[in-house]
Amino acid sequence: MIGTTIEWYDFFIFGTASALVFNKLFFSSLDPVAGMLAAFSTFAAGLFARPLGALFFGHFGDRIGRKRMLVLSLLLMGIPTTIIGLLPTYEQVGLSAVVALVFLRICQGVALGGEWGGAVLMAVEHAPKGRRGLFGSLPQAGCPLALILSSAVFAWVNSLPGDAFLSWGWRLPFLASALLIVVGVFVRRRVGESPDFARVEQAGETVRVPVAEIGRRHLTTVLLGVGAKLGEITMFWLMAVFALSYATGTLGLPRGDILRWITVGAVVMLVLMPLCGSLADRVGKRALFAAGNVALLICAVPLFMVIGGGDAILVGLSIAFSLGVLYPVMYAPEASLFSMLFPAKVRYTGLSLSANVGGAIGGGVAPLAATWLLSATGSIAAVGAYLAVAAAVSLACTWAMRPVEEA
Fold it and tell me: N or C terminus of the chain: which is more exposed, having fewer CB within 10 Å?
């Protein structure tokens, strides 16, 4: 959970900076809408790179073990994040700044693509029987912890006087990653190897090319996992990035106020994540995950219509409710549910591909699609309809899943 918090913190601060400053500092030569689309495209590059991380880290995670990959992924995330805090802007070095920013974002995406699968497997595969939902939800709690940390840090630097935030204040959250790397590596080096992988290794059942085995025997399962991921990941990035940009840019609401509402949502999410994980052990992982998608399908359009109303408190409550209540109902059981779709010998690869390809399609496209829909239709309700479609696809794929082991 500590390591996952650090990885997500690094990933989140880029999303927040994309919504607040990157369009001004790295795409300042473009008009406001084009600049925001360019900033969101750079943000999306990290999500589109996640499947590459899933392939690389999944291969070696199934071949040589989960633990080593967790340490490597943490370094691959933290070092580029720190370098982003030192980058010159477009006005200083021109296009080179943009190229460097995109490259470093891709490194972040590759790292996160490998990290998530390994982290949740270490938790789920260490869990006692009947407790996999709870144990799997604990690394998931790294997400709200990181969101609290990243939002709080940006709220703090946003309070700097004058133009200090745009000139140097935005860099501080990125530079702080250097210290977090040290903490994360120390923690992860002390974690024991997964007992499920140890049994596979002792039995001589490790697969030479896990992705080939996935393609031959588990391709349909991967596709169902990709589809099932779309609802929650689309909602998360719409609320954490697009809604932040819309509220501050289009509606003119104070940045600090919206960041505080995101923090409120993250605090509620942190409390509910293990509770939902424990509930999943009682009612079933697939049933709870499906229930969350039903709720999202019902709420998607109304939530965005409320946001479009422009009332500061209602906008904040909508964002906090989505992140704090709707999201953990789906995200908490996801780790154990997706883990049990695949046998242990190819689980790292299968789990990582399902979640990260779905994350790239749902999360990477979401802020871009929402910005385009809003510009094309002039109606924020169109964004809600887009989210509702994602929830419907997710619900259908969830019911079609057939876990190979009891989750």
Answer: N
